[in-house]
Design goal:
The protein is an all-alpha fold. The chain has one domain. The chain is 64% helix and 0% strand. The longest helix has 27 residues. It is elongated. The mean pLDDT is 85.
């Protein structure tokens, strides 16, 4: 969703681009999104790479948490984008 709004190649750059465009996300929340993304991308424990390593077994609760958290993030950004447009920016 960040890429769709900003066309940035990374989440970190995209969050910066959102801010430049006036879509303000609190710094602590930005860091939380970055850490959640880092978790999903971790080759040893992350959900996006869960089949690479036999060291870590991914369970339903991790998968569900990640799905719900990412869904919440997308919905949050959609509302931020709507508010941003409503303000004429």
């Amino acid at each position: 969703m960040v890429r769709k709004i900003t066309e940035a190649s990374t989440l970190e750059n995209g969050l910066k681009e959102l801010e430049k465009k006036g879509v303000i996300i609190p710094q602590t929340l930005q860091k939380a999104f970055e850490k959640l993304y880092a978790y999903t991308n971790d080759e040893k424990t992350g959900i996006r790479h869960s089949l690479i390593s036999d060291e870590y077994v991914l369970f339903f609760e991790e998968a569900k948490f990640t799905l719900v958290a990412c869904s919440a993030f997308v919905n949050y950004l959609k509302l931020k984008k709507v508010r941003f447009r409503a303000l004429g920016k």
